[in-house]
Amino acid sequence: MAAVAIVVAYAGLSGVWVSTNAGWYLSLPRPSWQPPDPVFGLAWVYNFTILGIVGVVLALRMLPQPLIAYLVVFAMSVTAAILWAWLFYVAHHLVAAALCLSVCALLTVAMVVLAWREEWWCGALLLPYQAWLIVAASLSWGYVVLTRS
Which of 118, 130, 105, 129 is CA-nearest to residue 56? Predict the structure, then answer.
């Protein structure tokens, strides 16, 4: 299934880069609205699980054209998220990283709409992921502001 392959690539590649240069990340001033570190682990377990489940359900129920549209938007969103991880943790290009995560959050709106049209509960399951990306993008922009002060 293409959706599961996208989730595996998402988890694997972002995980590699997020664990890079932890000392640099820990030295950054944190935005005041950043959740505690354990929340990130819990959120991503939910996100990756739901992305996989929704992808499989949609693959089994959607007609080919809407499914292709969903998978293309999903792949573009994941590409933006993975690029964010590399730009933020490896290259330390915080503005470019924040832009990528903002694009990822916007693309996820289309994913939610496409999923909702097919199975409303699939769209509903994606809403916490959408909210998480909005928070993550705001945190990314928060790092930009705090490191430029």
Answer: 118
Separation CA 14–CA 55 (nearest Å): 19
State the pTM of this model.
0.90
- Spatial CA neighbour of 97 closest among 146, 139, 130: 139
Per-residue tens of pLDDT for the chain, all 149 residues: 788 888 888 888 777 767 666 788 889 999 999 999 889 889 989 999 999 999 999 999 988 999 999 999 999 999 999 999 999 999 999 999 999 999 999 999 999 999 999 999 999 999 999 999 999 999 999 999 999 97
Task: State how many domains the chain has.
Answer: 1
Tell me which residue range forms the domain holding 131.
37-148
The CA distance from 101 to 133, in Å, is 7
Is residue 42 assigned to a domain?
Answer: yes
Residue whose C-alpha is closest to residue 2's, from 69, 59, 65:
59
Residue type, position 128, single letter:
P
